[in-house]
Amino acid sequence: MASISSRRLAKELMEIKNDGCPVGIDLVKADDFSTWWFTIEVMGESLYPNEKFTLQFRFDQQYPISSPAVQFVVTDGREAPVHPHVYSNGHLIALILSCRYVHPFLGNEWSPVLSVVAVCVTLQSMLASCKEKQRPVDNDRYIKHAPENPKKASFPLNA
Amino acid sequence: MAGKNQIQKLMAEVQDPSDFPEHSKSPGLRLLDSALRCTICSELYDGPVTLKCGHCFCSLCIRQSLAEKQECPACREEEVSEGHLRRNTVMEEAVTAWKACRPYILQVLKDVAQHDVASSRPSKKRRLDEDLYEQDVACSSPEGAKHPPAVKQTGSPHPDELVDCPVCSKRVKYKIINEHMDEGCTSEPEPDFSSKAQWENLLGSKSLLGKKKKKGKERALSEEKDDPLPKKSYDTLRDKAIKALLQEHDLSTTGSRQMLIARHQRWVSIYNANLDKAEKLRKSLPSLRRDLEQWETQQKNKTKRPVVDSDTYQIKQKSEFDKLVEAARPKKPSSAIQTTSGEMSAAPAHVPRSRTISPSLAEKAIVVDDFEDERMEN
């Protein structure tokens, strides 16, 4: 019997295949149960017209109890959005340690009832509500020493 | 990598609400199917329990979640703990019934779609939906939990099965329940004895697992059947004490302290979650042990992989390592310059300023740690 995390991910994928992703979000690849890629673009008026970003999700065996590791992909010509909460290496400021960002309904942390698509939507709305295109203040310092996995990063300033 | 095949296979095999046609074709069926699913694992509820706020989860799911964070995953109500969990017996019955009729309904829907007889379709489906709707309402209403658990649906229990005596509510074997009541509920030792016998029955397959330690087993046997296991504060326990805890339940005592603790924690969760199910649906202790072993191998698979080819990993990542080492080396003088330029001498300046300027030493430590973590955890 497959693990709970795999089964849950399989169901999320089913849902995506059946119902499709929300507008502006597309599944790029989900070939296994460890890494999924999505593209997101901001619809309507925003600071990011015609920009498309790639999001990477990584899952561990504890998913969905533990959060997925989420970051923007910055390889092969892809770029992270210029946003006060996004480092230039694709890591997200607020997805601290156990990966958290303000969810419109659920406050600011990961919860096992959230899903991959819910996180995408949250990030999409984060971009949509952006007022000023700039990098986080500590961008240079952070990317120098950032661990490969954003979940392992420590944020002395923003924790 | 088995990735793609595995994902295809699993997707073909998992059941989810989309097995049913959309709302316009079969109103409510999808909703019903998803209403009977745990929002954590998205399976049909397995041992459903309810929190103070009314949200319902599988017992094991919510126990794991609470171990991470003491809040309701759905509404984030705080200060909830395992002590607040209440069995949701009505939901459990609804799920049992749904499991039984789910394949039938799917078959009916398929037949209907095939025949596509315009006249018979709406009426038939309507009747089904109405039944199901009622059930759904019954189990989601807040008063639902107050209904007494319904009597066994089919036939009478097995003669050796324990049933609640309606008079004294002790557990008595079904075959002697009448004599028991006739004697004015005086046949005292019987229930105790029979529950022990049942335990022996359950544990009978011990040779399968090849366990030792008679003493521990006997203690486990005499344990009250429905008592949940208490949580332990492992920090205050020596390795030996933790091993004893594990032995008490015939669990493996190998591995590091961390593994022992994780194993015991998981066992407590599995064991207690099992108690949240109706007796009929509970698993035997040996099968719980198998679940635990399976869980442990799953954990190991994940943790082991990078370690196994650590040599190739190091070779592959060599350039990366070198880069990091290079990046780390010239850092020292430059950060010293930075801090000294901040008009204080280098050494003490690190402490107060580390929050604002690059706490380079600390961060290097994080980077190094990270590789170790990576190997251990991923």
From TrEMBL, chain A:
Repeat recorded as keyword: no
Domain of life according to the entry: Eukaryota
Pfam families on file: UQ_con (PF00179)
Keywords: Ubl conjugation pathway
Positions of the UBC core domain: 4-159
PANTHER family: UBIQUITIN-CONJUGATING ENZYME E2
Name of the protein this chain belongs to: UBC-like protein
From TrEMBL, chain B:
Pathway listed: Protein modification; protein ubiquitination
Domain SAP: 234-268
Keyword rRNA-binding attributed: no
Coiled coil: none
EC assignment: 2.3.2.27
Database matches in InterPro entries: Rad18, Rad18_UBZ4, SAP_dom, Znf_RING, Znf_RING/FYVE/PHD, Znf_RING_CS
Biased composition (Basic and acidic residues): 218-233
Protein name: Postreplication repair E3 ubiquitin-protein ligase RAD18
Main location: nucleus
Listed GO MF terms: single-stranded DNA binding; ubiquitin protein ligase activity; zinc ion binding
